[in-house]
Amino acid sequence: MRVGGSVSGASKTLAIIVAALGYFVDVFDIWLFSSVRKASLEGLGLSPEQVKSVGEALLNWQMGGFIVGALLFGVIADRRGRLAVLFGSILTYSIANIANGFVVDVPQYAACRFVAGVGLAGELGAGIALVSELVSTVRRGWATTFVATVGVSGSIAAPLLAKAVDWRTAYFVGGGMGIVLLLMRIGVFESGIFEQVKEREDVRRGDLRMLFGSGERIRRYLASIFCGAPVWFFAGLMMTFSPEVQTALGIPNPKPAPDVIAIAALGLCLGDLLFGGLSQLLRSRRKAFWVAYAWIALAVGAIFLFARTADAFFWLMFFGGLGAGFWAVFVTVTGEVFGTNLRGTVATTAPSFVRGMVIPMTLGKRALEPALGSIGAISAVGAIVLVLAAWSVWTLPETFHRDMDYVEA
User: Fold this and answer.
1) Is the full-model pTM beyond 0.70?
2) Regarding the domain with residue range 9-395, which homologous superfamily does it belong to in the CATH classification?
3) Buried-most residue among 98, 332, 344, 396 (CB within 10 A)?
4) What is the CA angle 131-133-139, rounded to 5?
């Protein structure tokens, strides 16, 4: 069912830029924690053994916050509007990050990570939904690729900042960036397509019962989540815990986490341009997914088989980051697979649920380690994730040519 609506070119440009910067702050925060994890927990007096286990727990608290925030802000995005989410989510995040700079124990740290996750959950989805509805079908992929690439560059900025300043100062900087972004959002206009749907009493908006009300929608929704999971297999297990992976591989003098995260994140940024552009040139999201999955499998296999020095591991992680940099294609698809009345919910929850999949991934890795060892456990988890992703792409429709001007009946 079609709806309609339009906005000026200047408003579209501003919305794209603001969405991109919002996602930058989102990604910056995730990798800021990964970059300062060791230093901050040691600063709170934890032992080396506790740093790993507590670090995993804090990552799970943050990802749990993403899940809660995704449900909350996803519904708000379709009921109240994309802009309501963009303002509310970044304010929540900013307060949590500033508070994170004052923590004195692990429970306080966990609370701040959870609230920050809740706040950031709305950023990407609302921005992608807004951009998808403002930009033409032909240019939509380029716009979302720009948003994703600028956003993922936050994963480069975070470790660089972590190396330059104290971990508490780093959290203050992250919160301050959120406040500046709030001011920038003044002047951004709501999607015309959403505004017209909002006026219609016959259209149900942001109704989770509708999303899960049919087997076809459930399958489409699950597929839209699982197709992005390989990104966070690589980011959540290979990048975040890169010191532990190097130790398991027997690499002498392993590279510190901020260095590995920075080079792998550079790969992610370039990969977003590569796969975003590839999907546009091939005029197919599905083909770009297939290439990315094969690339990740090849890269992780090469790391486990051939990385025997810190330098080799370092550059192979860059190569792996390139393959895992299909996030731009993934977030584009989350904004294309459902109609306007459920688009905000799906575009917000799907990326957050992908991040939330780090929880079962880390738990699965830990459960398999006694039998398979660290490398074997990561390999098993990665194989499961890639199989689920392949099923997802096989079942999802090709959305490259899809018009966003419709609703779910």
Assistant:
1) yes
2) MFS general substrate transporter like domains (1.20.1250.20)
3) 344
4) 65
